[in-house]
Amino acid sequence: MTVVLADLLAEGAELDALVAADGVDFAAPTPAVGWTIAHQIGHLTWTDELAVLCCGDPDGFAATRRGIVADLAAAIEAGAAAAVGRPVPEVLSGWRDGRAAVVQALRGVPPGTRLPWLGPPMGAGTMAGARITETWAHGQDVADALGAVRAATDRLRHVADLGVRTRDHSFVTHGLAPPDASFRVELISPSGAVWAWGPAEADQRLTGQALDFCLLVTRRRHPDDLDLSTVGEWAALWLTIAQAFAGPPGAGRPPER
């Protein structure tokens, strides 16, 4: 938890530096259709608030969750839109407070506790990894909007791990039965190390750069624009439907090449 929470703080700080720079227009559109930079930060603030609630008040979260899942798409839009039109310093202050509250809340979760969420329940470490994934993915939208290129770091391990662990979720979200097959995933990390999941002898395989895999599972790039290779029909299908987050998949990003 010490490592993953440090990475969560670092991921938030990197995005903070990007959006707090002089001249950033929070009304600027991002690649997410209909979402500005303000929407992106508003969404992170909203989901941080939910994370704090699920850690400290599971019953309160359960009541809130019922209202959200009744119309998840509308709830997501409303959470993001809450930041639109507000003064930028106020938006940033609320987001910063929420990030700090998430770290404090996760530190206080007893070992072995399963936290409720909009998707399946998860442990505190997985929740921290999911917050890193959200921050990184929406940070990518902001970076794309600003024409900025972020240096990939080994914090992507958390994103990649969640992407692998949510493989079956990807199939279910698209109305498909998860395959009864073993998968092997081998990724080259930003530092050059090999990250691997699954048995070495698995028939279904996905390989490539960790950054490309993370862009895939967060649906920030079209599969045609990523340098990822597969072996096996199920791995090839997974490449087209991978999704590491709860909620509807949406249309995804169009190919750029």
Number of helices: 10
Per CATH, the architecture of the largest domain is Up-down Bundle
Q: What string gives the helices and strands in order?
A: HHHHHHHHEEEHEH
Range of strand content: 5-15%
Strand order of the largest sheet: 2-1-3-4
Instruction: Tell me the helix content.
Output: 40-55%
Structural commentary:
The chain has 257 residues and is of the alpha+beta class. It folds into 2 domains: 2-146, Four Helix Bundle (Hemerythrin (Met), subunit A) (Up-down Bundle), CATH 1.20.120.450; 156-241, 2-Layer Sandwich (Nonspecific Lipid-transfer Protein, Chain A), CATH 3.30.1050. The protein is built from 10 helices and 4 strands, in the order ααααααααβββαβα. The chain has helices at residues 2-19, 37-56, 58-69, 72-81, 88-107, 124-146, 156-165, 167-173, 210-217, 233-241; strands at 183-188, 194-197, 204-209, 228-231. Strands 2-1-3-4 form a 4-stranded mixed β-sheet. A hairpin with a 5-residue loop joins β1 and β2 (194-197). The longest helix is centred in the middle third of the chain and has 23 residues, at 124-146.
List the helices and strands and how they pair.
Blueprint: H1 2-19, H2 37-56, H3 58-69, H4 72-81, H5 88-107, H6 124-146, H7 156-165, H8 167-173, E1 183-188, E2 194-197, E3 204-209, H9 210-217, E4 228-231, H10 233-241
Parallel strand pairs: 1-3
Antiparallel strand pairs: 1-2, 3-4
